Amino acid sequence: MTQKPPHILIFGVGSIGAIHLLQLQRAGCTTTAVCRSNYDAVKQKGFSLTSVRFGNVNYRPDHVVRTVEECPKDTVYDYVLVTAKCFPGSQPSLADLIRPAVAGRPETAIVLAQNGIEIEKDVADAFPENPIISGVIYLPGTQTSPGVIDYPEMLNMLELGTYPANAPAAHQSKAQRLVDLMIQGGGEAKYLEDIQVARFAKLLVNAPWNPICALSLCTDGDFLLTSDPFAHELVWGIMMEIVALAKKVGIPGVDEAAAKARLITATRRAEMGTGRDPSMLQDVKSGRLFEVEAIVGNTVRLARKWGVSMPRLETVYALAKGRYEALVNEQQRR
């Protein structure tokens, strides 16, 4: 017998959530989109996607709501896919925000498709019976205006694994099922036995590039051209601090070779003049809060816990945190 297509709630539907929503619809899923800042545009017109991979497409979620509380009370979601930005310690918490769709429904899997490390524990503690699936995304999309998505590359990878890695077999099956749906919908995905390896591997890109670009207002490629060799040395130095932390905590594969492979991408963009805006730079340009704690703060605190020296990343963290707090103050004065 074939499996019934799942009903999926996507929480925080910006560029990444909108692209994943399209893939899930193409896989036959019923989708509900929790849209916040772009609610009016999506409710009226749906999404408009310009994409190398999927072509130019206009599409609508099956249901659009502003908050999870607006979802039908009798709907049981197979997955709550969180593609909102990650803000550890924020109030109300992520667990509180998704609780109406999850509480009392242990079969609902919570998928944290977000940046950073050490982001799963609070949600897992809040919903100890639910499958917790952690996801690492490589998908260079940008929401250029509400509901309008630009997706200029073929890159489309979602790496998924359970939290913790030794979760029950039923939870692992839920993760594998979502991998299958993403592939069926035209993307790429894979199941990993230990998703934390993938989270640390992405830190090699996120930890240097996101705060550096947000502070300098440069694309990744342009930054490398600003002060050679100093720009290159700063990025590489932060990557080596991540490598040292990964080695200390026992994360395999996050080594110098992996760092070199990732630096090559930005180097090529510098040479070709095709630099990209990392997510933090996109947020700063738009006056939005950015994921300084999930990506950088959690990393430097873990390093101090393990006695790993991170002078470059700690400096970048202090500066980025200052910019973040200044942005908070600006928003409060409006």
Automatic annotation (TrEMBL):
<dbReference type="InterPro" id="IPR013752">
    <property type="entry name" value="KPA_reductase"/>
</dbReference>
<dbReference type="InterPro" id="IPR003710">
    <property type="entry name" value="ApbA"/>
</dbReference>
<dbReference type="GO" id="GO:0015940">
    <property type="term" value="P:pantothenate biosynthetic process"/>
</dbReference>
<protein>
    <recommendedName>
        <fullName>2-dehydropantoate 2-reductase</fullName>
        <ecNumber>1.1.1.169</ecNumber>
    </recommendedName>
</protein>
<dbReference type="GO" id="GO:0005737">
    <property type="term" value="C:cytoplasm"/>
</dbReference>
<dbReference type="InterPro" id="IPR013332">
    <property type="entry name" value="KPR_N"/>
</dbReference>
<comment type="function">
    <text>Catalyzes the NADPH-dependent reduction of ketopantoate into pantoic acid.</text>
</comment>
<dbReference type="InterPro" id="IPR008927">
    <property type="entry name" value="6-PGluconate_DH-like_C_sf"/>
</dbReference>
<keyword id="KW-0521">NADP</keyword>
<feature type="domain" description="Ketopantoate reductase C-terminal">
    <location>
        <begin position="194"/>
        <end position="322"/>
    </location>
</feature>
<feature type="domain" description="Ketopantoate reductase N-terminal">
    <location>
        <begin position="8"/>
        <end position="151"/>
    </location>
</feature>
<comment type="similarity">
    <text>Belongs to the ketopantoate reductase family.</text>
</comment>
<dbReference type="InterPro" id="IPR036291">
    <property type="entry name" value="NAD(P)-bd_dom_sf"/>
</dbReference>
<dbReference type="GO" id="GO:0008677">
    <property type="term" value="F:2-dehydropantoate 2-reductase activity"/>
</dbReference>
<dbReference type="Pfam" id="PF08546">
    <property type="entry name" value="ApbA_C"/>
</dbReference>
<dbReference type="InterPro" id="IPR013328">
    <property type="entry name" value="6PGD_dom2"/>
</dbReference>
<dbReference type="InterPro" id="IPR051402">
    <property type="entry name" value="KPR-Related"/>
</dbReference>
<keyword id="KW-0560">Oxidoreductase</keyword>
<dbReference type="Pfam" id="PF02558">
    <property type="entry name" value="ApbA"/>
</dbReference>
